[in-house]
Specification:
The chain is an alpha+beta fold and 343 residues long. The chain contains 12 helices and 10 strands.
Length: 343
């Protein structure tokens, strides 16, 4: 139908029709967004019929009617994973073979009461680095939170290359024994790593000489790297995990005990490692696939699911070809290679 301008009387009739036959059905019939309908109806209720302007200014501008199946998919994913943001939902659905644009996802979430928090701008750009293989480098960090009034310490050991969580500890105390135990457990399960990156906390660094943790690493043949003073961003990957677990678990659930908290953290880690697609490794792979070397097999399995449709300026465009390389989606349009970052 294209853009349409309605008289005051026509708008009144459309509003009445919506009350009788259903708002969504009427909006689809007249190719108008539901927000336009509600705008007309609210003005009628508040100020009477004369409040409707003679021209709509062009309906359906900036938004389209969203198909019911897309709304259902987005809301189901958000309900299952309340901490997921817009991009995470898009990538999780894409992995299943469903392509929905970030703008559509944003509109669905906002229409249903969710608002994406604004991200604080980084004051300085940090140098990005990444290990070239699993177990080349691991990162370790400690975070604190409270279960009722008891302070507890959550520690993650993270593979830098794959973002796979190798081990964790949740205890009321955090000392060298706790850290040694989780590091030894990780080595026994997955093998020895080459380097370990940590901050200069008292557990990781002896200010008056080498401590037992540093001595263990030295004897085991693991090279210990400390972050630079006042530069915590060098352990940014494990810091990112800390933020994710806070957003997706610690702020969402109330734990009855530290035992209950350990169980929930363990479940979250399993989902993080084996189910949750990760932005840092292309947005389509999960950490376990990169860590265990399953990338090629997974890419072959995912490639036939992706439907080759991408949203550019909220227009869904069919693409001529599509490929997955190292977990990142690459598009070809009319023989021109376009990476996902350029869309």
């Amino acid at each position: 139908m294209g853009k349409q301008k309605y008289t005051q009387e026509e708008k009144e009739e459309i509003v009445k029709e919506g009350e009788v036959n259903g708002i969504k059905e009427v909006c689809m019939r007249y190719e108008m967004h539901i927000s336009t309908y509600y705008n007309w109806r609210n003005k009628l209720i508040k100020n009477g019929q004369k409040s409707l302007p003679l021209k709509s200014g062009g309906h359906n501008k900036g938004k389209r009617i969203i198909e019911e199946w897309k709304i259902k998919k987005v809301l189901e994913e958000k309900a299952n994973n309340p901490g997921y943001g817009i991009s995470q939902i898009r990538n999780q659905l894409r992995r299943e073979g469903t392509t929905i644009s970030t703008l559509t996802i944003q509109n669905v979430l906002e229409d249903n009461g969710w608002r994406e928090p604004k991200k604080a701008s980084s004051k300085r750009a940090s140098n990005r680095f990444e290990a070239s293989r699993p177990l080349e480098l691991v990162q370790i960090d400690i975070m604190e939170f409270y279960i009722h009034k008891a302070r507890v310490y959550l520690v993650f050991l993270l593979d830098d290359y794959s973002r796979f969580i190798l081990s964790f500890s949740l205890n009321e105390e955090c000392n060298i024994e706790v850290i040694l135990s989780m590091v030894k457990e990780s080595i026994q399960r997955y093998g020895k790593f080459e380097k370990l990156l940590s901050d200069r906390g008292f557990v990781f660094h002896g200010w008056k000489g080498i401590n037992r943790f540093e001595k263990y690493l030295e004897e085991t043949g693991i090279y210990h790297i400390h972050t630079s003073s006042h530069h915590p961003e060098t352990i940014g990957k494990v810091e990112r995990v800390n933020k994710s677990v806070q957003k997706e678990l610690l702020r969402v659930k109330e734990f009855v005990s530290i035992v209950n908290a350990r169980e929930e953290v363990e479940k979250w880690i399993w989902n993080y490692n084996y189910k949750r697609v990760h932005q840092g490794i292309g947005g389509v792979l999960v950490p376990a696939e990169r860590f265990h070397g399953w990338v090629k097999e997974v890419e072959k399995g995912i490639s036939h699911l992706v439907d080759g449709v991408v949203c550019i300026n909220d227009r869904e465009i069919s693409l001529l070809n599509i490929s997955l390389v190292n977990g990142k989606i690459s598009f070809g349009i009319m023989g021109r290679k376009v990476t996902e970052e350029n869309l």
